[in-house]
Amino acid sequence: MKVEIDGHIKDLRALWFEDGIIKFLDQRKIPEKVEIFNAKDYNDVAFAIKDMVVRGAPAIGVSAAYGIAQAVLQGKDIKKVSEVLKLTRPTAHDLFFAVDYMLKKIDEGEDPIKASENYAEDIVERARKIGEYGNSLIKDNSRIMTHCNAGALAVLDWGTALAPMRYAKREGKNIFVWVDETRPRLQGARLTSWELKQEGIDHKIIADNASGFIMQQGKVDLIIVGADRIALNGDFANKIGTYEKAVLAKENGIPFYVAAPMSTIDKSIESGKKIPIEERSQDEVLYAGSCRIAPEGVKAYNPAFDVTPSKYVEGFITEYGIIKPNKIKDLLW
Fold first, then answer.
1. Which residue in 44, 57, 179, 295 could disulfide with 39, CB within 3.0 to 4.6 Å?
2. Among the options 157, 228, 266, 306, which is catalytic?
């Protein structure tokens, strides 16, 4: 991902491990400015995940992998570190997948830095394959809608939902993207638009509640979103507002796809009813930046994710191909 920082264009990932410090592109600051957040120990990593310095299920997973590797180097209690990291955000399955992966590798005697770097490189390769397979769904002059940010910032590179769009652009296809603003943290307006602009992909930001009207007007050919956790029956959790998009897509005859690596699938749950949903601070709804937009004394409810039933999903774009929701179990075993 090409990023301008300190007046220079650099090829950077969303996060990386350098000289014992985990460095994050601080996603709280983009697009106003690009700053690096330095995590010097596991408490900093936990803060980065919880406060959304880093976000996106695969990137959260890599953060945890690096965090455990760093903690081993620093002689920390790995069991305690693992517990702290797992408590940061409850919905994204990649977090738990990465922690368990690292504990297993360490138990097997593998060098923790090597294990964490292998995990990161594997995630990037999975994202590239998602782009390759998803590209087959995109025709020249396609109009695509997406929700939240499932780009390189949410993975490390390529992205999940944005990976097919990147692939299509690099193959010379003319595409256009409708970018939901994604209230309340505006990940679409701030982050997805920022990434698409760097790629030179034509797009427009829309208010979340404009998406149904645009579908009704026949201006959307397909929808691609990411996922934070996928159940075995194909139900999935993603950023709040995704469920509405899926229902509206079904009503308007628009194919709805989910792009995610297999690490996002939770083998322990049969349906979306078991997916834990994070509730975040009401201030994210009551304030726009530092400005309060609701009357004093009023409270808000702020679920960070919703669950979309599998019946609304045309297919899952994975590193193994495009899979129907009822075939997820077949792929795992």
1. 44
2. 228
